[in-house]
Design brief:
The chain is of the alpha+beta class. The chain has one domain (3-78). The protein is built from 1 helix and 2 strands. It has one helix at 3-52; strands at residues 60-67, 72-78. It has a two-stranded antiparallel ribbon with strand order 1-2. It is rod-shaped and about 85 Å long. 0% of the residues are buried.
Length: 79
């Protein structure tokens, strides 16, 4: 390998490592954000279920999740 090829190869490897690191970090942050939002939604849903569960009209939450599209919590509820 001549010097130009070696330099180009080295630059490519360094740029690849940096790009991979940035992608991995952003992916981790998105995953953590999604997990935190789902946990927050679950806590809100549990509070709602506790406060609104009456003997004659029971409330049952079937599914609770965070919707990034709506940027809010969504739930499937049966009364």
């Amino acid at each position: 390998m001549n010097r130009k090829n070696w330099l180009a190869f080295s630059m490519g490897v360094v740029i690849g490592i940096i790009a991979t690191s940035v992608y991995w970090r952003n992916s981790q942050e998105r995953g953590k954000f999604s997990f935190d939002q789902n946990l927050k939604c679950q806590q809100i849903a549990n509070r709602y279920e506790t406060e609104n569960n009456l003997p004659r009209h029971p409330v049952l939450l079937l599914k609770v999740a965070y919707s990034p599209k709506r940027n809010s919590c969504v739930a499937e509820v049966v009364k």
